[in-house]
Q: What sequence folds into this?
């Protein structure tokens, strides 16, 4: 059977008809502490560590994802469907590249390289819902990069 999504969640998997049309929303989960000096210059007082991501995955499809037994704090390896982009010349990916699918996880367009990242994340929360008459399952998974 052909995979219906680029998303991979290891070790729980992504059942057929549970992730078509997913939405992935990324935000930063770093320690940036922005402040203004007495001269009104914006500076970062953070420790300068690499930024981490928060990821929210949402979907409405025919089946539920394999979330039974998933707990807060559980580690998942996520091969994202979203492509990150960097300048090919002088650039490199900031995260490991997804490699568990037959679909290429990298491609080049002009001066840019696009790749699907592999992120090691912890489960922060998830929600599931079901519309009986509409015969649809809706779900969301909130993750924080380790």
A:
């Amino acid at each position: 059977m052909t995979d219906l999504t680029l998303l991979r969640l290891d070790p729980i998997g992504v059942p057929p008809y549970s992730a078509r049309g997913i939405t992935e929303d990324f935000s930063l989960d770093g320690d940036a502490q922005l402040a203004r000096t007495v001269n009104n210059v914006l500076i970062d007082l953070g420790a300068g560590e690499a930024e981490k991501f928060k990821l929210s995955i949402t979907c409405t499809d025919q089946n539920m994802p394999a979330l039974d037994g998933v707990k807060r704090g559980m580690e998942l390896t996520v091969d994202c469907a979203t492509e990150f982009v960097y300048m090919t010349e002088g650039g490199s990916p900031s995260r490991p590249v997804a490699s568990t699918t037959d679909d290429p996880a990298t491609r080049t367009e002009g001066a840019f390289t696009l790749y699907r990242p592999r992120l090691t994340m912890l489960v922060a929360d998830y929600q599931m819902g079901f519309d009986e008459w509409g015969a649809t399952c809706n779900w969301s998974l909130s993750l924080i990069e380790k």
Remarks:
- The longest strand covers residues 118-131.
